[in-house]
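Private note to self, pasted from the team thread so I don't lose it. Backbone tokens:
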């Protein structure tokens, strides 16, 4: 009876390590492997990302060496010790695995206090207005993986986004976040299943959910349709398309704003890339 309308550690870990290995490595370390540090919460979310990232690096033969893996208890707010150890490992990039507040602190403490002038990457759970407010200028030229680009338009890459984002802003006076888009879609997926089942009987609604095939609403999928997997590896999961955004300081609004930088195109939609990636001005590669 469980259907998961969201990404998993599997999805975003794969996107992130492939970005580091395929796209960023030729730019910062063309003659050696990319030196990656992973700083993560010691809970199922963080450990799941740690395991999946290492799995994809190995299985997909990516040119990445994990030079530091540091975990910490959930709720940690002081990351100076972990970031100092990571700086000593001389990474080319840092993958930070936390929620909004913790991730923002990692970005800020790493640059402001530790002098770890590298590329910082966060997970899509941070795709909320609070993240940009917390980061201030410390987010400039840093990265965020996502599957919902509230600032990628108008016009947006999915038609419904134009209406949804405009109405959300009118009602709440801020941009929607990724989890809100997930929830919006999930409500309409449930509505569709109930209507096709013609009843609220749990077993029949479950059966209807298993045969769901709706065109994408706010979240992109690999097929262009909302469908739940049936294999052991994909059972009751969707196949979301994820991408990488770079945050750029916007003097007018006093916050960073994200722009899609990778990949250039996605299935069934075409081009989603908004601008070219730029290294942060103070960026220092792990080894020359």
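Design output:
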């Amino acid at each position: 009876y469980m259907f998961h309308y969201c990404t998993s550690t599997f999805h975003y870990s794969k996107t992130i390590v492939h970005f580091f290995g395929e796209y960023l490595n030729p730019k910062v370390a063309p003659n050696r492997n990319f030196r990656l540090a992973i700083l993560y919460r010691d809970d199922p979310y963080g450990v799941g990302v740690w395991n999946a990232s290492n799995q994809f690096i190995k299985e997909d033969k990516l040119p990445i060496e994990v030079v530091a893996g540091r975990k910490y208890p959930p709720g940690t707010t002081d990351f100076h010790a972990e970031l100092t150890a990571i700086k000593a490992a001389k990474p080319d990039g840092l993958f930070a695995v936390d929620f909004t507040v913790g991730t923002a602190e990692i970005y800020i403490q790493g640059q402001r206090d530790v002098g770890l002038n590298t590329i910082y990457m966060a997970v899509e759970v941070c795709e909320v207005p609070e993240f940009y407010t917390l980061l201030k200028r410390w987010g400039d030229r840093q990265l965020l993986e996502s599957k919902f680009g509230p600032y990628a338009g108008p016009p947006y890459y999915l038609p419904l986004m134009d209406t949804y984002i405009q109405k959300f802003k009118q009602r709440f006076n801020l941009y929607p976040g990724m989890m809100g888009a997930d929830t919006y879609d999930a409500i309409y997926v449930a509505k569709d299943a109930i209507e096709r089942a013609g009843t609220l009987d749990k077993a029949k609604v479950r059966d209807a959910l298993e045969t769901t095939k709706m065109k994408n609403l706010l979240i992109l999928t690999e097929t262009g349709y909302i469908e739940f997997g049936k294999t052991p590896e994909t059972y009751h999961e969707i196949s979301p398309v994820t991408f990488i955004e770079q945050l750029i300081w916007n003097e007018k609004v006093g916050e960073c704003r994200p722009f899609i930088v990778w990949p250039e195109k996605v299935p069934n939609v075409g081009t989603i890339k908004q601008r070219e990636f730029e290294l942060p001005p103070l960026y220092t590669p792990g080894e020359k």
